[in-house]
């Protein structure tokens, strides 16, 4: 675990929301989602791995990701894992210590905490942003606020 990795600041969150629009620049669908995960992973040191899953029937399917390694969890049944729980509940989940959460499905040995933010369209969950952190308690209410704003920006570009 890398100690003292810089967490998101309010100033950076504001700046990133502006940069997100130009990073996506007219793209839609998968190319837009690829740009979003790349921007988040490369800009915020505490965001060790960033993925976007899409709802496909009763499953979440990994669509775009950015980070040091691919995950084996490319398809997660809704209701399973932290990802599946957040999709079912339609609410953001923050896990400050994945080692203490029985729902957690492990992807990377380095992961210590996780945030999952649903992406909604017309009141239904169409996907989610999943971020792993290599430090304990990497995500605060600021990350929640920021990523929920990102999810609202991503939703109209979905199809
Ligand atoms: N940890 C997740 C699985 C996805 S990986 O983090 C990329 C979960 O518990 O649902």
Give your account of this protein's structure:
- With 159 residues, the chain is an alpha+beta fold.
- 33% of the residues lie in helices and 26% in strands.
- The protein has helices spanning 10-24, 29-43, 81-89, 141-154; strands at residues 49-56, 59-66, 75-77, 93-95, 113-121, 124-133.
- Strand 5 and strand 6 (124-133) form a beta hairpin.
- Helix 1 (10-24) runs antiparallel to helix 2 and helix 1 packs parallel to helix 4 (141-154).
- Bound molecules: methionine sulfoxide.
Strand-helix topology:
Layout: H1 10-24, H2 29-43, E1 49-56, E2 59-66, E3 75-77, H3 81-89, E4 93-95, E5 113-121, E6 124-133, H4 141-154
Antiparallel strand pairs: 1-2, 1-6, 2-3, 4-5, 5-6
Helix pairs in contact: 1-2, 1-4
Residues 51, 71, 73, 76, 81-84, 104-105, 107, 114, 130, 132 line the site of methionine sulfoxide (SME).
Brief overview:
The protein is an alpha+beta fold and 159 residues long. The protein has helices at residues 10-24, 29-43, 81-89, 141-154; strands spanning 49-56, 59-66, 75-77, 93-95, 113-121, 124-133.
Helical segment tally?
Answer: 4
Number of strands: 6
Q: Any low-confidence stretches, pLDDT <50, length ≥5?
A: none
Oligomer: single chain
Helix share bin: 25-40%
Q: What ligand molecules are bound, each kind once?
A: methionine sulfoxide
Q: Roughly what is the average pLDDT, rounded to an integer?
A: 95
Main pleated sheet: 6 strands, antiparallel
The share of residues in extended strands comes to 25-35%
Structural class: alpha+beta
Described by the principal axes of the CA atoms, the overall outline is globular
Radius of gyration: 14 Å
End-to-end Cα distance: 37 Å
Order of helices and strands: HHEEEHEEEH
